[in-house]
Amino acid sequence: MSDVSTAIDLDTIAILDFGSQYTQLIARRVRELGVFSRIYPHDVSITRLLAPDIRGIILSGGPASVTESGAPWPDSALFSIEKPLLGICYGMQLLNYFHDGTVVPGSRREYGPAEITLISAEPLFQRLVGIQPVWMSHGDHLDRLADDFRVIARTSDGVIAAIRHAEPRRAVYGVQFHPEVTHTPNGQVILENFLFEICGCSHSWSLAGHLERTVAELQSTIGKLPVCVLVSGGVDSTVTAALLARALPSAQVRTLHIDNGLMRAGESVEVLESLHRIGITDVTFVDAAELFLERLVGVTDPEEKRRIIGDTFIAVQERELARLGLGDNKVFLAQGTLYTDLIESGSGVGKQAVVIKTHHNVSTPSVQAKREAGLLVEPNREIFKDEVRALGLCLGLPESLVYRHPFPGPGLAIRILGAVTPERLALLRQVDACFLDELRRNGLYEKIWQAFAVLLPVQSVGVMGDARSYDHVVGLRAVQSCDGMTAQAYPFPWEVLTRLATRLTNEINGVGRVVYDVSSKPPATIEWE
Questions:
Q1: Catalytic member of 32, 110, 180, 527
Q2: N or C: which end of the chain has fewer CB within 10 A?
Q3: Domain housing 20
Q4: 180 is catalytic
Q5: What is the CATH number of the domain that holds 376?
Q6: Any idea what the CATH number is for the domain that residue 194 is in?
Q7: Residues 33 and 110 placed together within one structural domain of the fold
Q8: How confident is the model at residue 367 (pLDDT cuts 50, 70, 90)?
C-alpha cells in the first residue's frame, strides 16, 4: 500500500531492506508492540529518514556479503544520522565494515540455535542477564571490531554477537542474531527495549487504526470506478472482499469465484455459503476446471504450474469481466496478497529479495500490468496472516472462516508433486478430507496453524490382503506458527498418527504408505512446492 499520511502522527520505525527474508517479519514484530513500522529500500533518501515521524531505524539482514562487489549499500550519511539505529545480522556487519572494522567469511555457515553471553548492562538488553538463547543465520562474521564500537555480547565460542557505539550519546547497536524470529525467545524483549527505552516511541499503532486508514485509502484510490475481487474462499481473499464491502457501495464491487478444479472436496459450495453469511450475495461463479487441467497436462515444474495457474486465473477473470460489461481498462482488481506472498516472490520493498517461490497473485504479467496501470489494490499486502485474521474479526467475519487453515492459490496442483491429472487430484482430495476429518475428531484442528496432505511422485511396495501391492505414497504436513514466516512441525500424539495411517491406507484405494514431514521453516517452506 502507498506511503500515505495519516490522520494522526504516528511514531514510526523505518526498516531498511537489504534483502532478508525476515525483513517484513521485523516490521510485524514492531507493530505487535504497538509501534508503526514501514519498510524502505536500503538506499532510501536520507531526507525521508530525517523526517520527524521516524523515531528509529533498523537495518535488516540479507544474503549478500558486505565485502563483495555490488553488495547493497545505503546512503553513507545514514551512519552519522542523529537517530537510534539497530543493525541486524548483515546490518551489524555493515556498521562494523563502514567504520573500518573487518568482516570475514566463517569456516561454515552458522544457522540455527546458539547461545550468547551478555557482557555489559545495556539499554538494549534491559531485563535480560547472563546467557541468552538466540537464532543465528549468517555466513560472515566480525573479525576485527571497528574502533568506534565495543562488544556487548559474544557467543560461547567467542564470536562477536552484539556491539554498540563507544560514544554513550550515540544510540547505535548491532546484533549478529535475529531477534525478530520466534526461535530467539527473548527477541521481542530486545526489540521492545530498542523501541521504548532507546527510541522513546509511544504505543500509537493498532489494527483498528489500520482498518480505518485502509478503508479511507480504498475509497480514495478506487473512487467511483468498479472493482473486481477474486475470492478463493480462504481468509485472505474473503477479508479483502469484506474490506471492499465496508469501504464502497455494493454496486461498485463485483465478486468472482472461479472453480479451477484444484480445490478441496466441496470447497466451492463452502465458499459461496461463507460469502452469503457475511452479506455478499452478488457472486459470479465460474466453473473453469476443464480449462485449468487442460493447460496443466504434463507440467511437473512447480514454478511453471504457478505461472500457468496464475495466467489462466487472470485470463478467465478478464473474460468474465468482459462478459459482465466490465472489461475495459477502468476496472480495479483487488487481491488478498499478504506480506509473505511478496517476500517469497522476491517482490519486497527493496531490490535484493531472493525468490523462494512465485505466488500467482504477485508475479504474473497481467497482475504486473494492473499494478503498473495503478489499477491494483492489495489492502493486506503490509500485514501477516495472523493480522489478517484479527482484521477479519474486526470486520465481523465468523471465527470458523477466519481461523480456517491457509490454502495456496494454486490449490492442490502444488500439493501433487509431479504431473497433475484428474485421477491424482481425486486421490489427494480423499486423503486431504480424511486427514482434516481426523484432526477435527481429535480436537486438533484449532491447535494447528496449517495441515495438509501431499501426493508424492513415487509408489511403494506393500502388502494388501496377503497380496503384493504397489501404491502411492502420501506425505502429511502439520505445523504450528503465528505468522507463516517460521513454523515447527506439530508434535502429534503417536496414536493419532498411527490411526491416520491406518485410515488412509484402509479407506482410500491407491494409498500404500504414509509419511509425516517433521521439517521446520526455515530451512523448509511450509508447502512442498
A1: 180
A2: N
A3: 12-198
A4: yes
A5: 3.40.50.620
A6: 3.40.50.880
A7: yes
A8: low
